[in-house]
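stage 2 :: seqdesign
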């Protein structure tokens, strides 16, 4: 994306940036959803999850996609984030930001971007992070494995 605006007040240049929903972000989201479903608490990423440096440094980008939000004490997945991990909803694969604000898909900055954003399912990005129904059943029914 090659889009910039000049501030009328100070003359500063503000640049638009794109962010892609990628495998490391989806894996980090999966870990957060697993944590949240187990403890029902906000998660301190560094203390509670085993994330790579890349995942920690870029985790906040999941906010741009509407999949997580920062809360007192850590991060919480949104309802959309949980549904995305379960494979129940899609999410756009690219978002654009400018001055820490997410740009709408009809913003003129998108005219300078070479690839059209598209809705993707979790399995399109990372098949192994997709929580299938069998996994949830196994988590809910540990007694079934006693015999």
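stage 2 :: out
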């Amino acid at each position: 994306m090659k889009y910039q605006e000049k501030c009328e007040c100070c003359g500063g240049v503000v640049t638009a940036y794109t962010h892609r929903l990628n495998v490391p972000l989806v894996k980090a989201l999966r870990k957060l959803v697993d944590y949240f479903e187990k403890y029902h608490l906000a998660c301190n990423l560094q203390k509670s999850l085993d994330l790579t440096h890349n995942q920690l440094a870029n985790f906040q980008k999941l906010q741009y996609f509407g999949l997580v939000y920062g809360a007192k004490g850590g991060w919480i997945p949104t309802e959309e984030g949980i549904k995305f991990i379960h494979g129940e909803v899609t999410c756009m694969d690219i978002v654009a930001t400018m001055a820490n604000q997410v740009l709408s898909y009809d913003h003129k900055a998108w005219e300078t971007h070479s690839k059209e954003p598209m809705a993707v399912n979790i399995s399109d990005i990372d098949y192994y992070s997709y929580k299938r129904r069998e996994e949830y059943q196994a988590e809910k029914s540990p007694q079934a494995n006693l015999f």
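stage 3 :: structure notes
- The chain has one domain: 4-140.
- The radius of gyration is 18 Å.
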